[in-house]
Amino acid sequence: AKRAGRNGYAVFDPTMTMSVLEEAQLRIDLEQALEREEFAVLYQPVVDMQTQSVTSVEALVRWNHPRDGLLGPYHFIAAAEANGLIVPLGRWVLREACAQLARWRAESPAAATLKINVNLSARQFQYAGLVDDVAGALHDAGLDAAALTLEITESMLMEDIETAKRTLHALRGLGVRLAIDDFGTGYSSLSYLKQLPVDVIKIDKTFVDDVDTDADDVALVDAVAGLGQALKMQTVAEGIETDAQWATLRRLGIDHGQGYLFGRPADPEQIRALLNGVSTI
Ligand code: C2E
Ligand code: CA
Ligand code: CA
Ligand code: CA
């Protein structure tokens, strides 16, 4: 499951089947990477659709691989999910992201109301210690629970609905906000969505790509905006790259936006500069 990468390095390619040996090696590599602190978190701005001011940042994990360079989640999240290492890795991301938000807030008045979004994987969501992990990360960073939004996907909620609902209510009980990620790509029904204690709907990039030109996408996004209003959930559009997409989504009443137009995933110093109005990213 390795192929020559851009720089002639070998990188993991999840679309290729791994041998048992390669899987075992990747597991060892991931374990070592955690111990050696080779993972890093980048942060992508989420902005207010009207003002473009940054309201939140989404934590996105990277692996600073000693041989293969900076690897995106595509190269290791699925494997970590399969071998269970996603639980300690996800815990590390959560703790790191909370600690980083506390640092930004301490450094800069511009970060006083900044919030953080953290992705959860299916395995993490099923893990019995999740609620304690979340409470611990907030406590140790000295953050109020409302500063944290956890992102989960529809498919994670469909597997065992009753357990999922209990977990969501326990997290909500802490005061944490919950977002449905990649909305529209799963199969959750409206009646189901209505029962869930969800605060935010993140509209998948696939509906955003052609929203400035495709009437069907306009109709779909319009419907989701209405859904958000009816269910009192905030809406975020993902993957906004152009002014035309932004203008259309704003007109449709989407609350927040995320995408390269507003900022790529960036390191903590770049985010600090962005918040202070010193630079764009
Ligand atoms: P996601 O949660 O849907 O995150 C958004 C992805 O879209 C990110 O990719 C981001 O860099 C990319 N993106 C944002 N704006 C644009 C845009 O305007 N154009 C394009 N082409 N792409 C854009 P990334 O960082 O490679 O992450 C991919 C996925 O990996 C994430 O998708 C998420 O599912 C997963 N992931 C990332 N970090 C974590 C983590 O800490 N834990 C877990 N469980 N999953 C993670
Ligand atoms: Ca996400
Ligand atoms: Ca997403
Ligand atoms: Ca997506």
UniProtKB/TrEMBL annotation:
Origin species: Paractinoplanes aksuensis
The entry's keywords: Membrane, Transmembrane, Transmembrane helix
Protein name per the record: EAL domain-containing protein
Residues in EAL domain copies: 23-279
Source organism superkingdom: Bacteria
Keyword check for Transmembrane: yes
